[in-house]
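Weekly structure sync, notes
Attendees: PL (lead), two postdocs, one rotation student
Agenda item 3: pending single-chain targets
PL asked that the sequence for the first pending target be pasted directly into the notes so everyone works from the same version. It is reproduced below exactly as submitted, 401 residues in total.
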Amino acid sequence: MATQFTISEAEILEMSSVLQSHRVTDTVAQVEGMLQQMTDVTLNIAVTGESGAGKSSFVNAFRGVVDDAPEAAVTGVTETTREATAYSHPSARNVILWDLPGIGTPSFQSSTYLEDVGLLKYDLFIIVTSGRFQDYHSALAKSIMQAEKKFYFVRNKVDQDLEASAKRRIKQALADEDVLNSLRTDCEKNLRKGQAEKSQVFLISCFYPQRYDFAALQMTLLEEMEGHKRHALLLSLPNLSTAVIQSKKEALASGLWKRAMAASLSSVTGAHTRTHSIIPNVMNTLKSYQQTFCLDVDSLQRLASFTDISLEELQKEVTSTFGKELSAHTVEGLLSQAASVQPMLANQLEKMVPILGTIVSGGLSFVGSYFLFNSALKDLSQDGERVMQKVFLGSLSKHTD
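Predicted structure, written out during the meeting:
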């Protein structure tokens, strides 16, 4: 932890403008309120399409849950969803995927489908299909656009399409890329016929989310989402690409001073002594970082269930102290080490941000928390990339066997 760091001028100005009160209790409430706004928002994602397309499997894959897990959406070869069913993300409860009934079934005809499932309560739609493009896909896309909602068209089960094509490959001499391009072109052409010109098509397999367009779908959703809902979506995503991991790191870093401020001021308002009351707050933040980068035991266990890689093998890729099981003793040692790194910066901060000067060791406590969280984001993002690479190589090896 000998690395030197500085707090940007923009962050100092933001702190100064926000923390006007000299009353510690008011400041704590203000900072905690800002953090709470980011977690209070709810993102509702509707997953729709025809019966048997794999909507429930998509809900599970998006949440990083295998189909036979206790918290999984029910899947099957026949229509298993009779009514809109909500499934919250295992570690981001404010992200909810709605498994909608299949369009075109006797109970849900295309003409009244969106009204029947409650169109207005969803933030965006994922249209999942497999097999041939149908007229009701175009009608559904057009209706969603008319309601000024965003939708994304997902062609599922492309692994099965590739396997079927391979049986005919001697005659057709088609490479995998040719097959996938043909599928994409067909979907895009039919969507244009239905006046959904701006629609994007993603080719995926819910059984192999590390392949094909699943990661591209993630990044597209992020690029087109705004504000706190984008933040909620980002923190819920599985690590399917380096871009997602780096986006998580940047998003968490943007709110880092608030986390550090809340932790350092908890040492004053806490019921325990200053030395110990900061520890639970810091531990909670570090554990939330572990979950965001999918490195906590539950997340790794879900990932192990999704792949042929054991939990123990995945845990070996987590090499940082921050990625391990955290104890109060470990966190206290890390915090003490971090707090001693730059006492001069603490003194400068107390002059520039008056609220810190009203607290004995307040600036030093803030610097220690800030530095600790900053180091954790760097190390955990690297752990996340190693785990992702392990899964990717395992998936590639299995695919080529």
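Discussion points:
- The longest helix spans residues 362-400.
- The two ends are 43 Å apart (CA to CA).
Action: rotation student to compare against the earlier draft before next sync.
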